[in-house]
Specification:
Shape: globular
Strand order of the largest sheet: 1-4-5-6-8-7
Oligomer: single chain
Number of helices: 27
CATH architecture of one domain: Up-down Bundle
Helix content: 40-55%
Distance between the termini: 40 Å
Number of strands: 8
Radius of gyration: 25 Å
């Protein structure tokens, strides 16, 4: 299967028409001066497109007006995303600092465009009659977003909105940077505290000259400790270290950001930020969001309580005198219960998931599913030596010079390092633009580009990077985003390119691809033991899936906790909001495990910056993703014709079709919660197995 996906490596591709800031002149070098010059040159092109738009005389048309607007958007999007990437991943702090400052400058240009009344009037002058569906959708959505930005407000209001949005951008960047650069550590003085952790983890964490072992809150350290360490004291120290990153500095930053958002919403005539943030989404309103969350609350409460009771009974049988399970022991006892009830030890699958094989397996799965080829580019310039570059071609293309079959390009930056963003995410970098007439001042067609920024084990000489079950699921998840960005990146309009759907549809492709990880035939193609080469046994995959099905109701409750916190912080008055009291009270409402004082997780919850009040997206899209996956064959999902229907009707349209229509085009009906409800309860009765 891997041979189908990965073609021989090729030399560096011709530069995209959009030069990269990490390699602006082909030298492979970057400085703060070159970065600033690159950004200013792109912003100048952005402004030139606006000037050309406003200089048009006579009737407004898509080609003389929307095209110029779209070119301005394309310049701003690609400039902002690539500069933000450097802020998140570049190894030199001076470059990261410069990128953060320039990201704010780019955001200011975006705010100015969104409040430009002359541009709005020009776009409003384009007749809707006679437009193709994608262009009409783009124009109508753009005009709505202009109104939601406040373009039709008076001069004083628009000036105040601009000021508030610029301040909000700085606060958001600072919040994220604080999380990125605040890595806490945990010191282990007694090696016995590491009992239960995998051998490769122990090998990678040797004692220093002082006899002490230092662990960090980076995910390759955090996740194994919370899952396998038998020492409750170590788990508790790691839990508090992880959940106090960027505290206390981010507490006030968050309150200030919430206050700015509330004022913006008020100026725009909304009761609160959540109503504003859902006005152009599939969810449509905060009231609909609450109803959706209430429905899932009812659906998951009983199952989660039963799961917790079963785990607690088990834990008490193993640890005399145990009264309750606290938040730092939740993952450990869930793992122990799964070992007993399902005869599944998470460590038993790790030898089958060395990082390099997982990478090739994910690529091979996507290649077969979507009928594409990945070609590694060995000598491509990127922002770090560890970054791997691939080009994507339509399957069957043998002529590398045939540019018509080139789909896109992507970069994999997959292991932690100092100063790098500590989370897992997909970054669209350049929007694809195709199928439009070329002419004077028209931007040429361009290939979409994207990157994955992750923090998986591995990346060091001699270290296989054995991954946990959840790590591999995360890889599939992020690659789903990547394929959406690239396969959806062949649009006439840059503003519709790639992941340009409503914000509450973007997690559908990522969560849908996760489900393929459960297929034992798929896993057998790449999950081979890193020492023996033996493929993962089907019986082990079956036990892994049964164990994985247990705890889903608890996962839903956790998502409800985060989602409700995101919603309430954006509906309450920030002047009287107690972030800590709200966090603890919602924890008690949704989760049955004992609260641990000192938990300040909200200070590192970067989704509060990105998704703001709309974190519900993960649950909402999980419902759609599971409904989508239910259509695929259970016996041969990769070679099912459904996969290409999914590519054509869901991924390739990018943002050219409203999300609800994407659902209709693929399913032939509106979404249903049936698959989600079945997923929560799948094989739940297996959880009643008697343990020794």
């Amino acid at each position: 299967m891997t041979d189908v996906a990965i073609q021989p490596t090729v030399s560096a591709p011709p530069e995209n028409i959009f030069p990269h800031p990490w390699n602006p002149d082909g030298s492979g070098s970057i400085s703060t001066a070159s970065l600033e010059g690159w950004v200013q040159a792109r912003l100048a092109r952005h402004q030139q497109a606006i000037d050309r738009l406003l200089a048009i005389e006579g009737p407004r048309t898509p080609e003389n007006t929307l095209r110029r607007y779209d070119e301005a958007v394309a310049e701003l999007s690609a400039t902002g995303s690539q500069t933000a990437l450097l802020n998140s991943v570049y190894p030199e702090k001076a470059i990261r600092d410069a990128a953060q400052d320039l990201t704010q400058v780019i955001a200011q240009a975006g705010v100015a465009l969104g409040l430009n009344q002359d541009v709005y009037k020009a776009l409003s002058g384009i007749p809707l009659d006679g437009l193709d569906d994608a262009t009409r959708h783009y124009l109508k959505r753009t005009l709505l977003q202009y109104r939601l930005a406040g373009v039709d407000k008076d001069d004083a209001s628009r000036a105040r909105i601009k000021e508030l949005q610029e301040k909000a951008t700085l606060l958001s960047l600072t919040f994220s940077r604080n999380v990125q650069e605040n890595v806490n550590t945990v010191t282990v003085e007694e090696p016995a505290e590491l009992y239960g952790l995998p051998a490769d983890f122990l090998q990678a964490h040797q004692a220093g000259a002082d006899g002490k072992i230092t662990l960090t809150t980076d995910f390759p350290d955090y996740l194994p400790v919370m899952t396998f360490a038998q020492s409750g004291a170590l788990r508790r120290r790691m839990f508090l270290a992880y959940n106090t990153r960027a505290y206390p500095q981010n507490r006030q930053i968050l309150l200030d950001l919430l206050a700015l958002r509330k004022e913006v919403a008020t100026i725009l005539g909304f009761t609160n930020w959540a109503d504003l943030a859902t006005a152009d989404q599939m969810m449509e309103s905060a009231e609909n969001m609450r109803a959706f969350l209430d429905e899932l609350d009812v659906a998951s409460k009983g199952g989660a309580e039963k799961e917790c009771s079963m785990i607690l009974d088990f834990a008490r049988s193993r640890q005399q005198g145990l009264e309750a399970i606290d938040a730092s022991s939740r993952g450990y006892w869930l793992e122990q219960y799964r070992r007993s009830a399902f005869e599944f030890d998470s460590q038993s699958v790790r030898p089958y998931f060395p990082y390099d094989r997982v990478e090739q397996g994910v690529l091979a799965t996507a290649a077969r599913l979507f009928q594409v080829e990945f070609r590694k580019v060995e000598d491509a310039q990127a922002w770090h030596a560890d970054v791997v570059t691939y080009e994507v071609y339509e399957q069957g293309s043998s002529n590398r010079e045939d540019r018509t079959t080139l789909i896109g390009r992507f970069y994999l930056d997959m292991h932690p390092r100092e100063g790098k963003d500590k989370w897992f995410s997909a970054h669209p970098l350049i929007p694809g633009v195709f199928d439009h007439p070329e002419g004077e001042h028209c931007a040429p067609q361009q290939i979409p580009e994207a990157a994955l920024i992750c923090n998986f084990p591995g990346g060091k000489a001699g270290e296989p990077g054995l991954m946990q079950h959840s790590d591999v699921v995360t890889y599939f998840h992020e690659f789903g985003h990547l394929m959406h960005a690239l396969l959806g990146g062949h649009q006439r309009w840059a503003g519709l390119s790639g992941i340009a759907t409503e914000g509450d549809f973007v997690e559908v492709p990522s969560q849908m691809l996760e489900e393929f990880f459960r297929d034992h035939r798929l896993l057998a193609t790449f999950a081979h033991h890193h020492d023996t080469g033996e493929p993962i046994p089907a019986e082990l995959v079956m036990r892994m899936n049964r164990a994985g099905a247990f705890g889903r109701a608890d996962w839903v409750r956790t998502q409800l906790f985060y989602t409700t916190y995101s919603l309430v912080t954006h509906t309450e008055d920030p002047a009287t909001l107690d972030l800590d009291e709200l966090f603890q009270s919602l924890y008690a409402r949704f989760l049955p495990y004992t609260w641990i004082d000192g938990n300040r997780m909200y200070a590192s919850f970067t989704h509060l910056v990105g998704y703001s009040s709309n974190y519900y997206t993960y649950l909402y899209d999980k419902v759609i993703a599971l409904d989508f996956y239910s259509v695929f064959s259970r016996t041969n999902p990769l070679d099912d014709s459904t996969s290409m229907k999914y590519r054509r009707t869901v991924l390739e349209p990018g943002g050219s079709i409203p999300g609800k229509q994407l659902v209709l085009h693929f399913l032939g009906r509106n979404q249903s919660t049936d698959a989600f409800t079945n997923w929560i309860g799948e094989e739940f009765q297996a959880g009643a197995s008697v343990y020794d």
